[in-house]
Amino acid sequence: MATIAGVTVDTGHWIGGERVGSGEAFTDVSPIDERPLAEIARGGAREAEAAVAAAAKAFPAWSRTTREERARLLHAVADGVDKRLEELARVETHDNGALIRSHRRGVMPRVAHNFRFFADRLLDLGHDDLDTRGHTNHVSWDPAGVCALITPWNAPLMLATWKVAPALAAGDTVVLKPAEWTPLTASLLADIAAEAGLPDGVLNVVQGYGAEVGGPLTAHPDVRRISFTGSVPTARAIAASAAPNLTPLSLELGGKSPLLVFADADLDLAADLAVEQYDNAGQVCLAATRLLVESPVADAFTERFLAKAARLRQGDPRNEATDLGPQIHRRHLERVDGFVRRARENGARALLGGGPNDDLGGLYYRPTLLTGAAPGAEILTEEVFGPVLTLQTFDTEDQAVEMANDTRFGLAATLATGDPGRAARVSARLVAGTVWVNCFFVRDLRAPFGGSRQSGVGREGGDWSFDFYCDLKNTVTAP
Ligand code: NAD
Predict the structure, then answer these.
(1) What ipTM does the predicted assembly reach?
(2) How many angstroms separate the CA atoms of 351 and 153, rounded?
(3) Is 406 exposed, middle or buried (0-12, 13-18, 19+ CB in 10 A)?
(4) Per-residue pLDDT tens for 86-107?
(5) Is the distance from the beta carbon of residue 237 to the nearest atom of ligand 1 less than 6 Å?
(6) Beta partners for residue 391, in sequence order
(7) In angstroms, rounded to a whole number, what is the distance separating the alpha carbons of residues 412 and 387?
(8) Which of 474, 287, 271, 268 is nearest to 385 (CA)?
(9) Which mutation among 40, 220, 231 tests ligand 1's pocket best, with the greatest number of atoms within 8 A of CB?
């Protein structure tokens, strides 16, 4: 047990409806001040095995519950999230350093919405029967089995429930492995689900390091689906683990998304959209980190951007007035800084920031804008995952599209233009799972979400989540 911001959090695994410890533990540290928060059970092959066994045991009964019963329980979990919203917000802010005001007003309400949305969607899930010369084709959405769900640290509970909710709605049982840097809210979710009446073994949580517990989990032959959000190198390791069993995978990975600013854009709006990319201290997979600006407006855009960015308040994320918190971990901050230092050594100039915030110390990194990087430079091609944007200019629409697509990723793209014809032409040519035109981060859970190229495999959201978490079956009946 640990007490964080006045909230008691169990630091064990949650397997088959019971709290389970491990012989070993690891220390969870807060990015706010790098102080230890809790000693967390360090799982391995044994815990992965036990959790899959518990989920497999719970599956037959859970998969036979009616849609209405599952929807009712998911709504009860959402109610539990709402009831403990403030506690969840406080614990998450201590654990991952993201803003308390975002957790209170955006993230935790979305966590509850994840459950409500998939509960309601489940009740509408269906297909009209097809007629084949008098034969009826009836499509059913059968539960697939045990799902291994592996999630990152940048939006821990939001991303976990984005997977847990549709998997449970589909009638599957779940083993969730949260990131080792942010283990706490997954543990609270287990409490909330149990209080809501979810049967034992339907949701299990194992804690620990990726390769130690995630490896055996993703290699397990009784796991029927693996849904992973995280980095490309880890996705490769998981795909290799899954290959012998041919376990279906859904992969939501990194990005290097562009923000295209055309000369006909509202430059104030474009600058606002660019500053928004520092949200969560830049630790957002969808962030449009490459600013591509049409040459004639580059100076005017940059002036507006710098004026707006200068107003950002960096500091303690527990303070409602803070706009920009810390990086998640010392290792991550050093990685981010390494990208910036190498870029500057190779000729890039910092128009803003360019290093850690020495006034604040700790894990606070200044919002940074780099320009003058050589084409193909690492800073233009690799995901930094920190508050670091680059600025490049273009002269024609063709060049803008070419630069935007010049990446091995394809998660998202944002464009600012006042010309609807251009918006349609350019968005049709961009390689991206999501394109935002004159807006950013507007999400509708009915829409498909995912990435092209190395930003992912498959789509989740709406019925696409059920496509993944179900085994679809067509039953053909003679007249
Ligand atoms: P990561 O790949 O290091 O870790 C993600 C999870 O995988 C963690 O739980 C980790 O313990 C686990 N893991 C690590 N090695 C494993 C292994 N061998 N087997 C099984 N599990 C293993 O990613 P991260 O640093 O936590 O997160 C940042 C990355 O996530 C960025 O690339 C970001 O773009 C991406 N991300 C993508 C989305 C999206 O929706 N596309 C959303 C958020 C974050």
Answers:
(1) 0.97
(2) 29
(3) middle
(4) 999 999 999 999 999 999 999 9
(5) yes
(6) 291, 371
(7) 17
(8) 287
(9) 231
